[in-house]
Amino acid sequence: MFDWITGLLEGGGAWAIAALMLLENVFPPIPSELIMPLAGFNAARGGTPLWLAILAGGIGSTLGAWFWYALGRAYGPARLHLLVARHGRWLTLTPSELTRAQGWFARHGGAAVFFGRFLPTIRTLISVPAGLARMPTGRFLIFTALGSFIWSGGLALAGYALEGGYDAVSGWIDPLSTAIVLAIVAAYLWRVVRWRPDLSD
Known about the structure:
This is DedA family protein. Its main location: membrane. The chain crosses the membrane at residues 12-30, 50-71, 140-160, 172-190. It is a multi-pass membrane protein. It is found in: Cell membrane. The chain has one domain. It is globular and about 50 Å long. By secondary structure, it is mainly α. Helix 1 packs across helix 3 (50-91), helix 2 (32-44) packs antiparallel against helix 3 (50-91) and helix 2 packs across helix 7. It is built from eight helices and no strands.
């Protein structure tokens, strides 16, 4: 997994970083916790410059978040609740969970969008209630971009620093990265299998 991701990043450069970070926010095949440290690692080894890797990661992450924001804004609360009621198993979401997310967003607003960028799963889901609440697009993008660039930059810097100690970690970083991806897939499948309709809705 390590070699495969680094191969993608080396071959595609900043475009690959942006695309992977966008996908990570739409439907996460590879978590940002792997993408950006490896982008920083490649930068330290002479690949895409660190500043460009961070820029690409932040832009990709922001665009991915905007996708869910635009979906929530276009669908509106009633239609989105109907979608969740019909396809909740594959979304691993119930209408009551969506309602709770809306309530949480209503209480915290911009802070929820900003700090949500640092939390797995939340970084994707928080964009939906922002769209449903019709949060001004400019305000949403500002909070999202700030959080995304801080998150992407921190991870990339960690990977950049790791390069010097690569010999010490090379033996376990590949199986660890593979394990993380498999754990995400397994968690999703577990939620699909364990999902039950919300009979209260």
